[in-house]
Amino acid sequence: MKNTLTSAVCAVALLSAGAAIAEPKAEVLHWWTSGGEAKSVAVLQKEFSDNGGTWTDMPVAGGGGDSAMSALRARVLSGNAPTAVQLKGPAIQEWHEEGVLADISSVAEAEGWAEVLPSSIAGHMKCEGTWCAAPVNVHRVDWIWANADVLEANDIQMPNTWDEFNAAAEKLQAAGIIPLAHGGQAWQDATVFEAVALGILGPDGFRKAFVELDEDTLTSDKMKAVFDQVRIMRGFVDPNFPGRDWNLATAMVMNGEAAFQIMGDWAKGEFLAAGKTPGEDFLCASVPGEGFLYNVDSFAMFDVDGEDSKAGQELLAKLIVGPSFQKVFNLNKGSIPVRTDVPLDEFDSCAHLSAQDMAASGESGALLPSYAHGMALRGAQSGAITDVVTSHFNSDMSSDEAVKQLAAAIANSL
Ligand code: BGC
Known about the structure:
This protein has 414 residues and is α/β, with parallel strands linked by helices. It has 19 helices and 15 strands. It is 54% helix and 14% strand.
């Protein structure tokens, strides 16, 4: 009896000694490498190390995360997954189906995530009822950014319709200014395309096309009108656009070489990191039309061995959804907090507009997941759409042909 008791006591002592010596560590794969992004991820690194964590950085450059996702696949296939990965939308559930994600429900429950996250967003963080990702922010995709001085000097207002946008762009072009700063990378083409699609199809049409993959909508006259407008916009882009990174396009708006950029509000992170002020140096407006396209960054934890790594995952998940990180990170990143209880008084006018429009769109059924940023569809389907969008953008493909290819691409990817 005494022996049994002694070994039980020893086991408890060992367990608690084990827990006490776990030193949180995390190798973090992300694609936040631009000026504004790097400043934002530094906030997380600092909070992690202030709380005793050791951070190993694994940045994979490439806007939109395509290169980061290839790097992730290679790491997982070689049996050496990173501890924490910037991952979002249905890709989270796809990785869960491969059986490689850790369950972070204990942190989510201890921290009361269900009470502070909107249910539409919490749904993206769940895998078969368990919590499998920690949400960072809400980025809005359907924005137009503009250089305030350039618009004023040319007597141009932020456009309320696509016709107004086209008229403004023609006027700017005649004045020798590049109307639209754009980087020719597939995900940027897709970003412009979906912003135009939201405006022209409207929220219900967008949902039918890019969430439900409804063939009638994908091949409709309105979808042809979307491609027509994108074709017009292709003419507003300078000849050096191929391959240009999105943040270099933002810099063109900042320095007045170009007037507008259509990009998610990570572009605001660039303006802010360069010391620019919204309403004075640059302007923000949602694209013509109704609705709100959301893009929620999040981190998923991969199933890795070792108490230190597990402690690192728990600490990271806790900090990411914590109110202090949510405020400071999002002030830098250009997004708004995902928690509903973080005061916005230190946030700028673009962030306030985003929060108001998100709430209103949530009520009217116009709050929609971004297809271009991997929130709406599984990878095979969004990839199939983007292939058509980018080949239309980079050729003289007609709108009739584009919708035909769209329907065929979707049918093949299902
Ligand atoms: C991510 C942002 C990132 C942007 C550019 C988006 O898909 O959600 O966090 O800043 O890509 O890399």
